[in-house]
Amino acid sequence: MSENTFLLDGEAIPFVPGQTVMQAAKAAGKYIPHLCWHPEFKPHGSCKLCTVKANGRFVSSCTMEAAAGVTIENRTPELDDKRRTLLQLLFVEGNHFCPSCEKSGNCLLQATAYDLGMMSPHFDHFFPDRPVDASHPDILLDFNRCILCSLCVQASEQADKKNVFVMGGRGMRGRRIIINSESGKLGDTDFAASDRAASICPVGVILKKRVGFAVPIGERKYDQAPASVVEVTK
Amino acid sequence: MNANTATPAKTKLRVATTSLAGCFGCHMSFLDIDERILQLVELVEFDRSPITDIKHCGPCDLGIIEGGVCNAENVHVLHEFRKNCKILVAMGACAVNGGLPAQRNHLDLRDILEEVYQTEPGLTHGGIPNDPELPLPLNKVHPIHEVVKIDYFLPGCPPPADAIWKFLTDLLAGRTPHLGHGLLHYD
Amino acid sequence: MPDAPEKTIAAVLARHKGDGTRLMQILREVQEELGWLAPETITEIARGIGWPRARVEGTAAFYSFFHTRPRGKYCVLWSDNITDRMLGNRDLMLALCKKLWLEPARLSEDGLVSVNTTSCTGMCDQGPAVLVNYRAITRMTPERVDQMAELIRNQVPLDEWPADWFRVEDNIRRKDALLDHGLVPGEALAAAMEKGSKAFLDEVKASGLRGRGGAGFTTGMKWEICRDAPGSAHYVVCNADEGEPGTFKDRVLLTSYADLVFEGMTLAGYAVGAQKGLLYLRGEYRYMKDALEAVLARRRGEKLLGSRILDKDFTFDIEIHFGAGAYICGEESALIESLEGKPGRPRIRPPFPVTRGYLDQPTTVNNVETLAASCLVARHGGAWYAKLGTAKSAGTKLMSVSGDVERPGIYEYPYGVTVAQILADAGARDTQAVQVSGPSGVCVAAEEFGRRICFEDIPTAGAFMVFDESRDMFEVARNFAHFFAHESCGFCTPCRVGTQVVARLMDKLAENHGSPYDIDEMFKMHRLMQGASHCGLGNSACNPLFDTLNKFRPAYERRLKSLEYEPAFDLDAALSQARQMTRRDDAGAHLSNED
Known about the structure:
The complex is a heterotrimer. By secondary structure, chain A is α+β, with helices and mostly antiparallel strands. Chain A folds into two domains: 5-75, Ubiquitin-like (UB roll); 97-229, Alpha-Beta Plaits, CATH 3.30.70.20. Chain A has helices at residues 21-27, 77-93, 108-115, 151-159, 171-174, 221-224, 227-233, and strands at 5-8, 11-14, 51-54, 57-60, 71-73, 132-133, 139-142, 165-168, 176-179, 206-208. A five-stranded mixed β-sheet of chain A has the order 2-1-5-3-4, with no helix packed on it. Chain A has a three-stranded antiparallel β-sheet with strand order 6-7-10, with no helix packed on it. Chain A has a two-stranded antiparallel sheet with strand order 8-9. The longest helix of chain A is centred in the middle third of the chain and has 17 residues, at 77-93. Chain C has five domains: 5-20 and 29-62, no CATH class; 74-169, Glutaredoxin (3-Layer(aba) Sandwich), CATH 3.40.30; 173-386, 3-Layer(aba) Sandwich (Rossmann fold), CATH 3.40.50.11540; 396-473, Roll (Ubiquitin-like (UB roll)); 474-557, de novo design (two linked rop proteins), CATH 1.20.1440.230. In chain C, α13 (289-301) links the parallel β7 and β8 (317-322). Classes of the chains: A alpha+beta, B alpha/beta, C alpha/beta. Chain A binds chain C through residues 43, 45-49, 51, 58, 60, 63, 82, 85-86, 89-90, 92-93, 123-124, 126, 148, 163-176, 178-184, and chain C through 39-40, 42-43, 52-55, 57-64, 326, 343, 348, 485-494, 496-501, 504, 524, 528, 531-534, 568-569.
């Protein structure tokens, strides 16, 4: 094995020092399921979908620096089974009702669940009561679908320099996106539809008004190709 | 074919279907398998189902349930199916996760009944219906796996006919059903 | 004061020089003055520290002891550890609620009082315990409940409540090398400075001293890595968050051995080259503030803190920071986040705090007991200390003993003591099990009482909760499951949702609605959370279930409704609202799972 490679499911993957396992895998066209990771932003490591086994130990591949000679298991039945369970936990934690969601077909949560063959949410639903915020003229927020990935937080902070969204609160009942205004309403912030954060949401929380069905269901991003293909080419 | 050498006619699998708190859309999608239904009836015969109008389910190999559980009658029907079917399948979004009817779960049932039958104009004269013939609604709408054990799930709103066909033919052939990209849909 | 909240806020902000990293202290002090953190209060604080408003709200919303909704003039929180429950806290709480005409967790309509539960307040040896406006009250009784209801109804200020209620006993039952240290303030420090920092660090390494928080990292090595790590400043952090239910040794050390703890922090500062030490004290111990500040002031006067300590070229001082009700802050990187004014979310590691900790600088985070023990090493040398205890566990350990024993309290033993010995000394009878190290630790059954407290066998921060044969080990595990669901920070999926799923399954079993299928589900969650969680909380959250399911399985099985699949909810109860609205009670208006 050459110096800067590691083994991913038995295949040698080259990496540049400083790259994470996730980055190197993606560069090599290998899919590691993920939700909270996005190539433009610092890894967050919270969704745990990208959990792999590195030399037999569970680790988040989005935060682990690639190291020469490490043996990594990725798409094994054991790990995919854990990922399916994590997806099921996310589905029952929020209110993910795909038939009424305009993000359907463009949603990474849904596409990842398809890719991993999740046939049901399995657990009992929590049916939480979460707010919808339509106060902004161009953007609708539907927190029923939030998976707490923090990508909007990162985009608003790092790309837009606005800090419109901040993650706060504790635990399943408390953790939530906090809007940067005293009223808690998006309409009272300087958020703009042109912000990076307006188009970063992997699920259907941050929606631009009046464009929801411009592309018909059936012809959308993950209708064209599964997440395992789209996510390594984007 | 000579009757003496023929293997005994393969017994058909018995299938029952029903719709609980659903819109029958899954059954309609089922019918969208079109002429393949002729192949299907070679393999199965229907017990209780909207197709047969049999009122109660007898012993079956396969039960297919559309819709979630929103009232007492749904619970009785579900129990009947579970008791009689070796394999029970949740078909469609409502059966799998409560679907559209479960969108009422954010509201208190008492508030709903009050608003519909007492405060909003329209139905306010009769009061809240209390005829013992009517099944009572449950406080919340539940997916069917929260009431009985479900063996297989076929999501979709409705599942497309091709998905239903693939799913059933897998099951009938003794394969664990598998839907690939394009067939597995939650909407 | 109520007419000028801006002035209060401005004064607090000025006291902290508008430094956002001190947000926890700012929020606490403002809340102590204004009662709660109103939206406009948060806006004002955010402006004062120059942070986005949402970030201030994010921190305020994370901690249980910060109130972003009106709180009531009296906020009564019942400690809800299993030991408090065994002492009858539930009945007492309901009695108080009844007397005050309110429901638990609800603010009374006149805004006067709210009554709720909180995680273990560290008074397990003298429970049932409560916090009233975050002041600790011990040994609650039905009589005290009656009096308390009166005091609240008559709006008597807390300062005028019976002083005896606020008395916290040390309950030291057995002393060994640490509690019988015989040192005078400054003695250990002088000995170390006599040797020089390098030689002192070598002594600590030679002593074999290991972290008393439970993980057992070698203290000398931690200090050496920290000292050698490049940075513009180095920091010493004393972890006095002591949130593990059943633990209260730090309470006793900081009450009666504060000099030893502060001297240990100073020694650590001397060893790693730090000038600043931070004591992160759990909010439950707010009552200790004045006494601790007085000790610090005295030590400054004695030249044991400040510039030119003992007239040598060494500067070090200590500041006290309070937590605000978050168990997760016992995890060292979450603690550091909290020290910086943020929600206590464990960081991604590496880097570890020893190289990049507080304000991104090299930071050694040590347990209260570890720091205190380092004084013995400084005074008597590494070789002397290494002779105490066992081969891999040098020294002594403080055990916080509570539950079904005659003499609950603090017991100090050399490492290697057996569980049976502690039980005998504490006067335990008919013991069924001991939960060592709290909910995240191990449940030890009777046939294992020969096991020893040491890193070779049972490593522990010292919680030792005893359950006799009358106790239901299922209820013990259920209490712990709810504890973790309440304390999960919510950062990672498996722990955030998994702890809730587990707590719900335990409730289902408790209500006699469960089946073996539900037990299998719990094992499944255990396997998921143990591998995939972000930090130790999620990784160990299912330990008590796993242990009790393996060692006390009948406690679960006798609750099973049937061996068949059972619904997620009570079918008949699910018709309750429709029955109420239709006034029906005929056979068709009921359901069972058997029809």
